[in-house]
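Hi support team,

I submitted a single chain yesterday and got back a structure, but I'm not sure I'm reading the token output correctly. Could someone confirm the output below corresponds to the sequence I sent? I've pasted both exactly as they appear in my results page.

Thanks,
R.
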Amino acid sequence: MPKFRAPRGAADILPEEQPYWDFVSQQVERLCRLYGYRRIEPPLFEDVGLFERSVGAETDIVQKEMYTFQDKGGDTLALRPEGTASVCRAYLEHGMQSLPQPVRLYYLLPMFRYERPQAGRYRQFHQFGFEAIGEADAALDAEVIDLSWQLYRAFGLKGLRLALNSIGTPESRPRYHEALRAYYQPHLGQVCPDCRARFERAPLRLLDCKQDAALAEAAPRSLDYLDGESARHFQQLCRYLDGLDVPYTLDHRLVRGLDYYTRTVYEIQPAQEGSQSTIGAGGRYDGLIQELGGPPTPGVGFAGGMERIILNLKRQGVALAATAAPRAFVAFVGEEAKAVAVRVTGELRRAGVAAALGLGDRSLKAQLRQASATGAAYAVILGADELAAGAATVRDLAQATQERVPLGTLAERLRAPGSGPSSL
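Hi R., thanks for writing in. Yes, this is the structure output for that exact sequence:
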């Protein structure tokens, strides 16, 4: 066993895993740019107060899961547990309210939460997200939800469910809280310990409990307690989503776990059920920027967990493009040929031809085995006869054919699609 291992809840992303990460990142960047979102990258750590004010001082994230530390200057900082608060802080700090609204931003970032590691859940994990700040129109909610849905379609995942709800505003929510408490009061003796604690401080979270799901299913619905403006907003949103052909399911148990959400909340869930079923979630947060000291500024956003998406890509057998192999593997016989091989390999790379070089003092046979193992299309062989002719022997490793190619035209012959060395 090695002396040192990755910390519990943190994983190495090995080379063979990178095609999944590249694929997800590329789809995020492509779709976000198509919808007019620009990339932002806030720092890895922030003042701990930012998350206490935004996420909520009573949430599990702040109470139990944040990685906090005091730096040498005495400031108390926290590793970033989620992205929205940092983006909103940057929006305020850099005067983005003076830009044309809404400001559309996206990110791909590592996050940190001290949670119990399990499939799809890590202490260091990665999220992509997008935020649209500065507009309260339900059409913007529809845009963000549509972007989310089209993105998951681009991933190639099947059997997804988009769950949708509205939880109203902080001003209208107390009436709903009262209805929830009245419903749960007779059942407090049978609910889990976490729900007994949530009963007073976070009644909405009662609906999110997996252990007491049957009880939550029959609980009062937030849609029945919306104020007039929130009800109109939600009706408009549903109409816009219908027009965009985005399928959704109304789910009155959907509340989300962060304090800053208002009105629209939604999740994207895979067909496979379980405690880690959600692979993306978002909603509206109209009071967040004001909570951070800015003027009243509406916003709506979404975040997806990259580890969970990749887990579902593997479960569903989504085929990805093969990892690019070198087009050419340069092999040599003898020290003089090796010097030329080093130069030729460099020339091929600078000409845009992916090339690998045989190393050490392996025999030609061993180098050719290595060439096949790398997946190279061609082996470029240099020996005494080739050096005398100012050429290289180019072997097609798939067809087991070869020909002599002058060194001056080698890059051109290997680079051009469809014009590899001809068979002999």
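A quick pointer for reading it: The two ends are 52 Å apart (CA to CA). Let us know if anything else looks off.

Best,
Support desk
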